[in-house]
Amino acid sequence: MKQINDYRHRKILVLGLAKSGVSAASLLHKLGAFVTVNDKKPFSENVEAQRLLEQGIKVICGEHPIELLDEGFELVVKNPGIPYNNPIVKKAEELHIPIITEVELAYQISEAPFIAITGTNGKTTTTTLIYEMLKAAEKKVLIAGNIGTVASDVAQTATDDQTIVLELSSFQLMGIDTFNPKVAILTNIYDAHLDYHGTRKEYVKAKGNITKNQAKKEYFIVNYDQAEVMEIAHKSKAMLIPFSTKEELHNGVYVKDNAIFFNDEKIIQIEKIALPGKHNLENILCAIAAAKLFNISNNAINTVLHTFRGVKHRLQFIEEINGRKFYNDSKATNILATTKALQSFTQPVVLLAGGLDRGNEFTQLIPYLNNVKALITFGQTAEKLEEIGRMAGIKAISRVDNVEEAVPKAYALSNEGDVILLSPACASWDQYKTFEIRGDIFIKAVHKLK
Predict the structure, then answer these.
(1) What 3-state DSSP class applies to 164?
(2) Which residue numbers delimit the Mur ligase C-terminal domain (predicted)?
């Protein structure tokens, strides 16, 4: 960890806790800052705040009082989940107080370089694939970020002979200043989180931040098949490494004759890849590009691709019960992710879907519901999804209270040879704190059924 003096004796407000806020507050305290933590959860229920207080950090809980900014803070480190239209955040902007997220701190103290991955879909799978490929080649590699491990925690122990593979959300990327990865990856861009960003333009701008500080010595791996991504790429100063599932790219990664090539070198036949789903091909191309930039052998790449079957909650195969295959795709928190999952199967599907209502009408799902024989809905969007199901001609449509109830109902509507798929097309926050919790409940219900 770099021993920087940038924050010594500076007054800093950490806004919002959760994992990243706790890490940021502790780190800044170590770096000599005068830290105040402000979290909405009441102190009596806030274990994290209580522990920070024991470290000697000032803690204010229960609300976000705007008057707090009268204390003369020089910096705000904001939890990514707190939107910029929050009154205290808006006031900080009016006062021209810099606002960053915890990943910026991680970059500033890290001795290790970063491979940073963002995009609407495929981030977690791509991040995990890269990590596994580097590990298979016996490289010293760490994994962090939106995938579950806080970046600044990992960065504190990282050394200059290691590499940090970092998954980043648009929320996190809105709060960077100097962050500059050795390799940046933009998997794709589709409509998502518009309730947070306000407009697609702002969402795209946030994603583009991943390359804003890169120079010629860094690399930017980009989706050649998306014009919007290539617009960002052409503004980047980094060395571009494009990938495509449609075009032959002699200076990038592409598909030809049912095989994957990097700079015209054949890497692997597609039929030898264990990871299911056409949508995962883009993720694999990204991972191969990153691995080759780190001189990873084809043998190590192939070893991973022959065995890797996906990450938890992302089209994760759970088990087969009486000829029914159960898949957990709880991370499908938007419509596009669910369409990708549905395209992965030719068998009849019993679809479990529903969750937070963000104003979507779900009509984009209709062309992908041909194989869906039954639909089980839950959550705020249940009624909307049922209407879409009827429009698609699905005969068996049922509503339940939650995911746990959906599993036995789905089984009752299924036959041998069917796929039972949890792919909600919605965020989980109406009923579950995270999509991970929603997925874990699904898994437990499947095991209980067995």
Answers:
(1) strand
(2) 313-426
CATH node for 316-449: 3.90.190.20
- In 3D space, the residue among 194, 190, 196 whose CA is nearest the CA of residue 81 turns out to be 196
Quick check: 148 pLDDT over 80?
Answer: no
Query: For 309-328, what is each residue's pLDDT tens digit?
Result: 888 898 888 999 999 999 99
The DSSP line for 234-294 is HH--SEEEEEESSS--TTSEEEETTEEEETTEEEEEGGG--S--TTHHHHHHHHHHHHHHT
Question: What does the alpha-carbon distance between residue 366 and residue 349 come to, in Å, rounded to a whole number?
Answer: 14
Q: Is the pLDDT of residue 38 over 90?
A: yes
**Do 11-100 and 110-307 agree at the fold level?**
no
Q: What's the order of all strands across the beta sheet hosting 114-118? A: 141-145, 163-167, 114-118, 183-186, 219-223, 239-244, 253-256, 259-262, 265-269
Average pLDDT, the chain: 95
Q: Where do the structural domains in the chain lie, given as residue ranges?
A: 11-100, 110-307, 316-449
Global confidence as pTM: 0.82
Does the pLDDT at position 193 exceed 80? Answer: no
Contact of 344 with 315, CB cutoff 8 Å: yes
What is the reported pLDDT for 326?
96
| Residue 106 contacts residue 113 (beta carbons within 8 Å) | no
Beta bridge partners of 220: 184, 240
Nearest alpha carbon to residue 92 among 103, 107, 78, 80 = 78
CA-based nearest residue to 231, from 253, 205, 255: 205
| Residue list, annotated binding site | 119-125
pLDDT for the residue 383: 98
pLDDT in tens, 39-55: 999 999 999 999 999 99
Binding-site members for ATP are 119-125
CA–chain centroid gap for 121, Å, is 7
- Output the CATH code of domain 11-100: 3.40.50.720
CATH number of 110-307: 3.40.1190.10
**Residue-level pLDDT at 194:** 72
- Count CB-CB contacts under 10 A for residue 313: 23
Classify residue 414 by its DSSP letter.
-
